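Hi there,

I know you've been waiting on this one. I reran it after we fixed the sequence typo, so this is the corrected version. Both the input and the resulting structure follow.
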Amino acid sequence: MRKPTFFVSSTIFDFKDLRSALKFFLEEQGCIVLASEFNDFIKPIDTHSYEACLSSIQNCDYFILLIGSRVGGWFDAKERVSITMREYREAYELHKKGKLKILSFVRSQVWHVKEDRKELEKYLEELGIAEEIRPKITDYPTKLASDSVFIIDFINEVARNKETIDALHGNGSFPTGNWIHVFETFKDVIDVIQGQVFAGSSVQDTAFKRLLTLELREIIRNCLYKWKSRIFNPIFVKKKFDRTCPIRQEDKEKDFIEVEIKQWDWLASAAVQLLAVKVHPVIIQEAIKGTVFLQFDLALGAFKETEIYNCLSLLNEEIRKFSEKNTTETLSVIFKHSPNNRVGSQTTERIKTLELVPFLFLCDRWINIIQLSSAIILHLEKGAQFQMPHLMSESPIIGMEEKLVEERLSHQDVEIYLAAIASPT
């Protein structure tokens, strides 16, 4: 996987700690970070440092601009263009071509200086202060703005104020990439990056989710089947079989069960492909072991399962049961009761109960794997709110699942048991 590459542009002296923290954070997310003061920044000995920085921007996906109280080194002193400004202009040209995204940040104190001086200029005008005197008052240097004219002009350029005004008057289109994020703390910067770049997830998590969807897509590809160029989900033939040939509690005591031939043939024909279906989950099992789909509960001080985590656990269990039952022995019932083995015209088929029930159980697991995999993909890829799909019963025998649930211990039952052994009487 190609890692996202970031270029950090700012004056170094007043942003040294923030630049270092940004580099550490982004690299922990699996990104590549280009910051000129670090030794891993490529420094061609036959190229000026300014040109090396400008060249490096060409290979980046994101450009992080930090504006503070200092101008920094001049790229063109006569034209009052700093190296940071020149880097930004290089990045903006790439942005306009769709090759790079820009995230711009301004220290809150500097932003307030800009806003305060704008109000001060209006106030001086209202007081009737001579126009040639006003800049001497509004542009005075402070610790928060060593060259307020340059810094304010730079902020206005990044905000693309002129292009916006022109667009409002019908001259040209509205600019993009002109968001400015005002920040006070490192967390303010990280919150923006997380939301804009990772959508709240780290690069590793994003890559992991992508691998998971690829595995789920491959599982679905193996489990669906084609007939006459149409794609089919076996849930439809299985549900029709269940409606026309329901198996009840009393039927499990019988040696044979009568089923309608038409519905049996539809289901058996679909299930023939199970001979070639093998499901070996790798990423799904890693997802259950890891914390990508867990949520930290501050009150409990521990991770708790999310809906999608529970869905993945259920899918893994369905795959385990499917793999155990997907054998030639289970599927042999298909061939024993194929049309080639029938004599005369008959509308029903007598099938051994001990052969039919395991086969139907296998079909239900097959369907549930498709349903669960599809639901997870829709959530991860389409951003849809996760919804647990309709699943086939644990048992193909009507009413049996309710009995199994009654006999299975609940979480509350476990708590009662643990409480009892913790304080024996």
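Quick highlight: The radius of gyration is 33 Å.

Best,
R. S.
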